[in-house]
């Protein structure tokens, strides 16, 4: 799909469920062989892989709020996130505030350097809870 000379991926309205086995759920967001985001849930852990931007925010929000309703305390693993934008970070900040208000925790795990940089530049690092990394001796 082309728009104003920029190539865009076509995103389906509904995420495509491509595997479930009990407590583990995998959601592929995007159309065709190319996809923008994979969302994998395993208990209270949610793993995001790929482009976490405005195109995938709605699907991530739906899965995230479902996880929060089911478990209360949720860990979001961002180690596989290759692209992030302010829309995605605002979603995480809003979910963190809502979760804290309800007396629970939303923890971000394994943030890549780009995610950490964006969190600090936007000052959203003050709002979200980052998992502490043990310093090696």
Automatic annotation (TrEMBL):
<dbReference type="InterPro" id="IPR002645">
    <property type="entry name" value="STAS_dom"/>
</dbReference>
<protein>
    <submittedName>
        <fullName>Anti-anti-sigma factor</fullName>
    </submittedName>
</protein>
<dbReference type="Pfam" id="PF13466">
    <property type="entry name" value="STAS_2"/>
</dbReference>
<dbReference type="InterPro" id="IPR052746">
    <property type="entry name" value="MlaB_ABC_Transporter"/>
</dbReference>
<dbReference type="InterPro" id="IPR036513">
    <property type="entry name" value="STAS_dom_sf"/>
</dbReference>
<feature type="domain" description="STAS">
    <location>
        <begin position="45"/>
        <end position="137"/>
    </location>
</feature>
<dbReference type="InterPro" id="IPR058548">
    <property type="entry name" value="MlaB-like_STAS"/>
</dbReference>
